[in-house]
Amino acid sequence: MAKNMSSLSGKVQTVLGPINPNQLGYTLTHEHLTMTFNCCYCPPPAHQKAMADEPILMKHLFWLKQNPYSNKENILLNQEVEAIKEELLFFKAVGGGTIVENTTTGISRDIKTLKKLAEETRVNIISGAGFYIDATHSSETRSLPVEQLTKVLVNEVLVGADGTNIKCGVIGEIGCSWPLTESEKKILQATAEAQCELGCPVIIHPGRSAEAPFQIIRILQESGADISKTVMSHLDRTIFDEKILLEFAEMGSYLEFDLFGTEMLNYQFNPAVDMPSDNERIKMLKFLIDNGYEDRIVIAHDIHTKNRLVKYGGHGYSHILTNIVPKMLLRGVSQQTIDKILLENPKRWLTFK
Hints:
Elements: H1 2-8, E1 12-14, E2 17-19, E3 26-31, H2 61-66, H3 81-93, E4 96-101, H4 111-121, E5 124-129, H5 139-143, H6 146-158, E6 170-175, H7 182-198, E7 202-205, H8 212-222, E8 230-232, H9 242-249, E9 254-257, H10 278-290, E10 297-299, H11 319-330, H12 335-350
Parallel strand pairs: 3-4, 4-5, 5-6, 6-7, 7-8, 8-9, 9-10
Antiparallel strand pairs: 1-2
């Protein structure tokens, strides 16, 4: 095991094997290329009940944008391998290099398909090890002690995931609910222990409360994790107060704004939240940059439903490169800072110690 670890030191591990960090190029740190989201299906109101079982139609696209989790076909991203292959080829053509694929156990990780997509598109794909939120944990997962959970994570990185020899290159996204459950807490502790052993990057899906990221980082710290190699996802739907955001930034993790392209009136998972627009996300990035955190920011789209694919009228995986970067430049973010966010910060995070 120690031999495997030393061979990963200074490398990034993709589904096609370890590579030199300089080969990454522009990197999206939080995407899904194949997954199912049945665990988070939200039945529509009674008067829209028929919409749940209908195919995705042009006339429904606006409704789908507002209610993405209320149509059963929309939450089966795993059915769109060919469309996603086309998108990856376009992502590559417009300057993209790498995608960190955050699908973990519980939401239909398909590591064989990830390898196939990487081979066919030559986009670097990095697969995530670990478990999603408690609602997707098996009874076996819930019963495992921290020591056994740690072994599962280490095995997925060093040996292979899901009965294959295809290896994960990051732990996560590790799913956390609010409030955090006992099973999720054990997995966080195992994540910290596995990271100590491997020197690997970690990425977290926090619960939907501004308190959640703080609680998670504290648990990881107490368990010996390297917070400087940990990404906290979904901050754009979690912390809205600038003062609180700066307090969290001081804890030392990477700050991920990963819902670019998601603009909706009604956030189904937390109706109290006003989902920000992309313009507001850029303003928040500018705020963090102006406060000295440009070395800790990473960005992505977190595509996980069909309606966000170009095939269905969505923004696709190239939205940041083709639309957001030009707007960032217009808003006074320098190309040098953009290169930190899309190139240097992901490279530093993804490289094994």
